[in-house]
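Typical record is below.
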Amino acid sequence: MAYVPLDIKAGIYRNGTDLQSMNRWRDANLVRWTDGTMRPVKGWQVKSQTASSASIRGMLAWVDNSDNRYIAGGSYEKLYVWNQGGVRYDITPTGFTAGQEDSPVSSGFGTGLYGIDYYGTPRVDDSSPVLATTWALDNWGEYLVGCTLDDGKIYEWQLNTGVVAAQVSNAPVDNRSIIVTEERFLFALGAGGNPRLVKWSDREDNTTWTPAATNEAGDLELQTSGEIMCATRVRGQTLILTTVDAHAAVYQGPPYVYGIEKVGNSCGIASQKAVASTDLGAVWMGKRSFFIYSGGQVSKLPSDVSDYVFSDINENQISKVWATTNARYGEVWWFYPSGASNECNRYVTFNFIENTWSIGELDRTSGVDHGAFRTPLWASASDNHIYEHEIGYNYDSLTPFAESGPIMISTGENVASVVQMIPDERTQGDVTATFKTRFHPNDTEREYGPFTMSNPTSLRFTGRQLRMKVTGSRLQDWRVGINRLDIIAGGRR
């Protein structure tokens, strides 16, 4: 008899084949690793008293100068504000042009008349993709400013719940996005219908846009073949991301005000909301890779799950991808629509403290980290409510779990018999274990369990390789470390 530790490395590995994930966790939902220990992502509860009429794509939470807290969220047709009690107010600007709930599929395979051209061949990509509508929202002091690509106007809301947002005077129109810089300039991105033009207002005055000797308003056109998608604040800079590259805007003072430098090639962002800013810098999802910018040059971010994510994603709806931080745990979360879904129903996370990745299923369309509110706030795709996250252990119909890749328990022609397990968990009974065995990689899998963990836990199965699935209680803050199996060397099979 020999006790074999199941010392499985923290995080999910899902690149390549099943066997390449040997001795790693391969699948999971609603779990994370902290200090090498597996634990559950906490649950959620409804925050908003009244739901949005459509999926929220763009959120902001902030505190005004009188210590009142607000949540802003926009759909393709509306702009809302919720107060700290969850009461919703419709502040949709008068004359706002509604956009697209989904991304219409307008080119490629299946486009055009039936029977034209050869069967099975992709059609010419001869039209521009239409993006699902998302809101760029930011704070101008205590006020809210926002813009969508479809409408193109810049709006401001001045905290009066009885008055809707209004167009910013003298601001450019036909914009793709906006951002307020650290130096208190309002940037109009893709201004005036030019997808490469950046215009900014005077400092501390978002109604002055015409450059003059007496102000700091101005504009610059990016030297890029792509189109501006969005921007985010990083330490001392404003990072502007396009469909193909990245540019850093740095304040220089009069007379030039801003200088813009290209800091990355072939690193275009997947969508207008796919970037998050962390203490390490900006992290974003591209079309086939993840990227990070910490100053200097953009770098590709190695990922243990990129093969799975980019093979799984619905590229026709990739414009719905969005990112958020969960700073308490050192995480960036991306939500995306899987290949069979038109809505964001899966997520991938990067823990930049532990340098681990995880995956899972959860239908969320937008959100913000804790700060103005004590927990992260995320909007649901199923009912359009805003939920408080990382609170309690309610997961609706979902259950936290993690399942390993293959673990070899014998070599050569011999098989091994497993007779018991010595669990390593904080409170026994909080999790169950299920084992799946094979005698060779292409063999039919045999399943045993689930077993409620006790010390020891009696088992009885044989095989050459196994995988273990740990399923957590829906009521407890459980922990799982290094379990051990009692294995008896067997004979040939």
Remarks:
- The chain has two domains: 2-40+400-492, 44-389.
- The radius of gyration is 25 Å.
